[in-house]
Amino acid sequence: MIAFKPTRRVALGLVAAAAATFTIQQPAVAQGIDLAGKTVDWIIPFSESGGSAKWANFYAPLLSEALPGKPTVVVKFMPGAGSTKGANFFQDKKYKDGTTIFGSSGSTQFPYLLGDPRVKYEYGDWNVVLASGTGGVAYLPPDLAKKFNGSANGLKDVDFIYGSQGATRLDLVPLLAWEMLGMKVEPVFGIKGRGDGRLMFERGEANIDYQTSSSYLKGVTPLVKEGKAVPMMSWGALDGDGNIVRDPTFPDMATFKEVCEATDGCETSGEKWEAWKAFFVAGFPAQKMVFLANGAPAEAIATYTAAFEAVKARADFADISKKRLGIYPQMTGNEAKGALESGTNVAPEAKAFVTNWLSERYGVTLKK
Amino acid sequence: MDLIATALPALGEAFSLILQPQQIMFLVLGVLLGLSVGVFPGLGGIAGLSLVLPFVFGMEPVSGLALMVGLVAVIPTSDTFASVLMGIPGSSASQATVLDGFPMAKNGEAARALSAAFISSLFGGLFGAAILTFFILIARPIVLAFGLPEMLMITILGLSMVAILAGRLPLKGVAAAGLGLMVGAIGEADAGGSLRMSTYDIPYLTDGLKLVIVGLGIFAIPEIVALLRQDRSIAKNATLGAGWMAGIRDWWANIWLSIRCSVIGVIVGVIPGLGGSVVDWIAYGHTVQSTKDRTGFGKGDIRGVIGPESSNNAKEGGGLVPTLMFGIPGSGSMAVFIGGVALLGIDVGPQLITNNLDITYTIVWSLALANVVGAGLCILLSGGIAKLTTIRFTLLAPFLFMMISFAAFQSRQSLGDLAALFAVGLIGILLRRFDWSRPAFLIGFVLSTQAENFSFQAYQVAASKFRRGADAGLEYIFSEIVLVLLVVTIISIVIGIRQAKVIMPEGETPIGKKRAPLIFLIAITAYFLVSFFNAQAITIQTDRIFPMTISFVSVICCFALLIQMMRADEGSSIFADREASGEDAEAPHGLWPTLAWFAGLLVLASLLGFILALAIFIVAFLRIRAGLGWPKTLILSALGIAFMLGMATVLNRDFPPGLLQSLVELPWPFR
User: Fold this and answer.
1) In this structure, is residue A351 part of a structural domain?
2) Of B585, B616, B638, which residue sits at a domain end?
3) Is A81's CB within 8 Å of B329's CB?
4) Is residue B412 part of a domain?
5) Does the structure show a pLDDT above 70 at B240?
6) Do B290 and B335 share a domain, yes or no?
7) Which of A33-37, A163-167, A298-302, B370-374 has the lowest mean pLDDT?
8) Interface membership of B147 toward A (CB under 8 Å)
9) Looking at residue B520, what is its pLDDT?
10) Which residues have CB under 8 Å from A325's CB, separation 6+?
């Protein structure tokens, strides 16, 4: 278990520090905002069936209880263009009274990192108040799983179909991983959420799929029990030194790194591996974040930070979050800022490699 | 019988769970909320559920379920009021009800149409719940049998209903549907995100238009404006004919039709990804095709109400199958429902049916009970509410403009909503004037995204299966279900084309001079041409094929129509024009002055914000256009605005802000 558990005192200290810094610039007294009688719209730029929906639905009622004045927290789904649409919408929302918050995901970070022309949002304008890590698991139908024995050598002749939200999204990590293993995976683009991908898998139209941890726990574990799906590998998790280790939520599952080492032609070093790892780090350990809009005052940030701290401090939090989100760090304050930092920056070489790969493999042109 | 052995004890358990005074109370509360929200066009299950979600967390599971299911279940029941009384499609599930329900209201038979609709809804709802009880245990393989080619075929079947609703000239119907498809394709493409007929400089357009706006614009505004020009009541002679008992007798006389349409509703509802958008059209098409005497359709045939209404409530039952079984919502309200259920500590998905069959059945039977209570209440109310159709329409109109503007604003909460509503309304008025099938346009719009995504994805999967071998590919594309649907589609197109001349979804249209219809056709052709070249300029292959194909086919249709127009003599039905003669032309008020009132409201709203604009608009309208005295004017205006404020407070909604609001901080209702 590597979940952070910073004490509440540290967090409050941070909040107080943040508030104090701000008071110098602005004479208003930072007491936090009161949201009594208001409705907080939590915008999720995905459809209702994916991992972000489960994550937001998990947090929304807890957040509602923890915020001062116990406002109603409503999760609003705004899917489109693989989350670019919702994020662009949020970018246009200037901070008003703290009743609009935004939940981003790795699929929002990637187009930003890659300079996708549709991106009109700027992470630097937003104010992070929570960052949640997660993992991901790739899985196969039982008949194909028989050809998989810890190495992907037996899967190189199979024609795989995969329901994808778009190559510039989080799907980049599985697509690149499978290609490194020498597998022929053809993505079918344009699905609205990973839940639809799972349904394609269940219908037999897709014969490989991956889900982020929370969706996997809820949607795929029953299939595994019924013998209709077999986990292939997890993407792993990061240890304190930045090494990829087994995912604590799925300790019995081999990581992609292990599978790669066992598979002929797959290297865990070199520019391809470094690029994969860079995008994995950007996409998973700091995957889902909650933001306040551009121009949010320190008291609003402090209020939300304290609320998420209070949620984490609940006696039953470890138990309920383990069941629904998996065992991953839930970060606030400076930790969340650090997570945002690592999630929205990749090495230029990794970016160049991936940009080039996307254009050669999928014909996606991105502005440099 | 394993099935019955599993189902019966759980059913008994579910009954004892739900038949408690407390649960029934929550159920009725949910039903009342659902009915009130559903009456508003544009506000549906999502708005209603968002109202109760905050109270659901921490509730006892069965009570919470009863509350939420009660609310969701009756929305397709109460949205019928708007469809029948005002010709406004209350939600995507009651689009087809407008076609015959509204003409019935105009004939003074609103109570009959309403009660027939409600009893059909009730029957459909109960039928759906009954089928669901057993079906849910065996449905999994059936749901999984509907892959992308099957969903594409159902979408095409929905589109094939254009044939029967095309009106006198099939080519015009096809072009109208093409226009709908192209309007549906405006904005960022789903697959690659390329922009179509929009730019980032107008962010409103990049998101595409919402059904609320298009439904209100295409159906409601033209009807409201047309009625307003007449200065009389909705029911032509301000009298009510047959009462609500007649509607119930009508339903009983057509019980088999009701059963068949309920079956259609359950089947279409079960397939995830289709939602409610096609089911009422397919049911309407079936109703028309299976009837011998088809001349009355579009002019107020009661069967045109019974068919779609039976199917749309049955669909809710069917829609619970994918929702409960796969955790994949069939509609926006089902999605919020899943969120609410999660708050109660229940996870939807296969494990729910396997491990908690009693909870599952609680949901199913709450649905059934809610239908009984909801439809029962509506039937009792229908006689009274139908009296609205006898009031002088000029007195209703400002409040209708108020309601549709507010409803449209809920789409994106921006002033763009109001501008879009007006623009689409203008298109609707012109389509109506020149007898271009508005139902065909709406079908095209509603199915646009689905048609594009399913065909593209099915093509990709099929291509990969063909690479594996021709057998695998053919087996994938031509499954038994696809073949059956293909046959049904072909039959429906053949019957449709044969019968389209008889069925006038919009009634008779007078014929006018050559010039105006020709100019409109040229404008439409120009739009198709522009969209074609706009699509051609897109670099991502997957985003351009669909708009290019559709606009190409539509341009061909338009050219064929142009040639026909050049050859035809004046007086041919190709030159349909409502302004030439007949009811519209002889109306006491002109089209443009009437429309200008609505435009005035929108312009004022963009300057002063919605509430201030509304106050000025209603007072001015009642005083000048309706010619009321000051006391009546002020009382009615105050009531209208108080109602609007009340709604907004309860639903926690904002009003459209204007220029004034960006300059000065104002307190709440004026904000």
Assistant:
1) no
2) B585
3) no
4) no
5) no
6) yes
7) A33-37
8) yes
9) 92
10) A54, A55, A58, A132, A134, A213, A214
Q: Which of B207, B335, B542 sits opposite A77 (nearest CB)?
A: B335
Distances (CA, A) of A49 to B129, B348, B349: 24, 11, 11
Q: Is the pLDDT of residue A16 over 50?
A: no
| Whether residue B299 sits in one domain with residue B189 | yes
- For the ranges A6-10, A330-334, B197-201, B509-513, the lowest mean pLDDT is seen at A6-10
Please tell me which residue, B492 or B522, carries the higher pLDDT value: B522
Residues 113-142 of chain A whose Cβ lies under 8 A from any Cβ of chain B: 118, 120
| A214-236 per-residue burial string, b: 16 or more CB within 10 A, e: under 16 | bbbbbbbbbbeeeebbbbbbbbb
Calculate the average pLDDT of chain B.
82
The last residue of one of the domains, among A256, A283, A310, is A283
Lowest mean pLDDT among A11-25, A202-216, B80-94, B561-575: A11-25
Task: Kindly write down the DSSP assignment for every residue of A253-303, as one continuous string.
Answer: SPBHHHHHHHSTT--SSHHHHHHHHHHHHHHSTT-EEEEEPBT--HHHHHH
Interface touch B460/A72, C-beta < 8 Å: no
Do A184 and A244 lie in a common domain?
yes
A 141-170 near B (Cβ less than 8 A): 159, 161, 163, 166
pLDDT value at position A339?
79
Number of structural domains chain A divides into: 2
The distance of B53 to chain A (nearest Cα, Å) reads 8
In this complex, which of A39, A49, A77 lies closest to B327 when CB atoms are compared? A49
Q: Which of B609, B610, B634 is nearest to B621 (CA)?
A: B634
Chain A residues 251-290 with a CB less than 8 Å from chain B:
none
Let me know whether A256 and A303 are in one domain.
no
Distance of CA A153 to the CA centre of its chain: 29
Q: What is the mean pLDDT of residues B25-32?
A: 89
Cβ-Cβ contacts under 8 Å, A195 against chain B: 326-328
Query: pLDDT tens-digit profile of B264-318?
Result: 888 888 776 665 667 888 888 888 888 877 777 878 888 989 999 998 888 877 7
How far does the CA of residue B147 sit from the closest CA of chain A (Å)? 6
Per DSSP, the three-state class of B344 is coil
Chain A: residue whose CA lies nearest to B342: A57
For chain B, what percent of residues have pLDDT higher than 90? 15
